[in-house]
Amino acid sequence: MEKVWKFIKAQPVLVIAFILAVATMFIVPPDREYIGYCNRTVLIELFALMAAVAGLRSIGIFDTVTRVILQKTGTVRRLGAVMILICFFSAMLVTNDVALITFVPLTLLIYSNIKDDKSLILTIVLESAAANLGSMMTPVGNPQNLFLYDKYGLTAMTFVKTMLPVGALGLAAVLLLTLFLPKDKCEAPKRSEAKLPVIKAAVYTGVFVLCIAAVFRLVPDWVCLIAAIAAALICDVKLLLKIDYILLATFVCFFVFVGNIARIDAVSEFFSGILTGRELIVSALLSQVISNVPAAVMLAEFTDNGTQLLLGVDIGGFGTIIASMASLIAFQIYRGSERAQTGKYMGVFTLVNVTLLVLLLGTQLIISHI
Predict the structure, then answer these.
(1) pTM, whole model, 2 decimals?
(2) What mean pLDDT comes out for the span 318-328?
(3) Which residues pair with 185 in a beta bridge?
(4) How far is residue 339's CA from residue 111's CA, in Å, rounded to a whole number?
């Protein structure tokens, strides 16, 4: 029972999704229509993308790039600005989760020689916000973008035009907050002497490029799936253990849950009615409670306004600590450090994220009514 309780505490979103899926099975018994619930393309692309990124991360390519950039960093304030920009732009390609899993530990390493806990907390909170902002700018930046991009058949141009205004505003606001960091001197960690394995780097990069091509519908999804599995089997089979199967399972459970409730007339009519014309507000608020990935999967069945739903769930990633799983990941990494002050972290996190939520949501509401 202790192990079960630990799993529930560690993976609450998956557990809730599983319970909801099973509960709705009693209302809508399994039949042939269940096969059509799951978005195969999204699951395949997520799997392949996670495999490619895990491979690139395993050979230290992110650490190498970061250390080169940080050589020009001389103060805590510049360090904060550089790390924010790194998280912002890397999240566009490798997802906000991976950006934070990679760069928050590096930030903790850099701060091991900087005795300034307030600046450490603010830097990680701003990195978290920057990763969420960067991830909203591309279809592959986070799972809900990938899902909605495929669900509504959006074009790359439509996607960028939709997300650019709030994304750029958010980045400007986060960079402005770095002014609260001091100008104290700091040094980047020493560069590792180990050389990057060129062949593995080429293979993983190739798989990553195929994943991007599949997202933009240039190649079939099964091509990047085969490439990802082959790369893992040839280069490092352990990569298959580094896939976030919890996320994939959560998607499957929510696909089943949403597919079932969409077939219940009363529920379908309720969500369709409450969402019509309110996609932005409803999705942003729901994300505060169940996080933005399940909110996107759940609400997509009840509206045709994909762009407003996309904006709502991405902006809704700000606010509470559970609104975005990436933010929760950053918090968990920080909480595990020796210098962790969780109370102060939550205070700074809430202040920054609620401010961003109000700013971005208010700005988008004005844009939508112009």
Answers:
(1) 0.78
(2) 88
(3) 75
(4) 10
SS3 75: strand
Task: Quote the strand ranges of 102-176, DSSP E.
Answer: none
Paired tokens of 320: 């509470």
Would you list the DSSP string of 169-223? Answer: HHHHHHHHHGGGS---B--PPPPP-PPP-HHHHHHHHHHHHHHHHHHTTSS-HHH
In angstroms, the CA 170 to CA 355 distance is 10
Which one-letter DSSP state was computed for residue 236?
-
> Contacts from 228-237 at CB under 8 Å and sequence distance 24+?
228/47, 228/48, 228/51, 228/52, 229/51, 231/51, 231/52, 231/55, 231/203, 231/204, 231/206, 231/207, 232/51, 232/55, 234/203, 235/55, 235/199, 235/200, 235/203, 235/204, 236/55, 236/58, 236/200
**79-113: pLDDT as tens digits:** 889 899 999 999 998 889 878 877 887 888 778 77
Distance CA 323, CA 292 (A): 6
* Cα–Cα distance for residue pair 159/307, rounded to 1 Å: 8
**What's at 117, amino acid-wise?**
D
pLDDT band for 138, please (50, 70, 90 cuts). Answer: very high
Contact 146, 45 (CB under 8 A): yes
Query: Beta partners for 75?
Result: 185
Contacts of 225 (CB under 8 A, 6+ apart): 44, 47, 48
Residues 258-306 have pLDDT tens digits of 788 778 878 777 877 888 889 999 999 989 987 888 888 889 888 899 9
Q: Do the Cβ atoms of 188 and 110 come closer than 8 Å?
A: yes
Q: How confident is the model at residue 248 (pLDDT cuts 50, 70, 90)?
A: confident
> Across all residues in the chain, what is the average pLDDT?
87
Given a contact cutoff of 8 angstroms between Cβ atoms, the answer to whether 54 and 243 are in contact is yes
b/e map 171-188, b = 16+ CB within 10 Å:
bebbbebbeebeeeebeb
DSSP states along 333-354: HHHTSTT--HHHHHHHHHHHHH
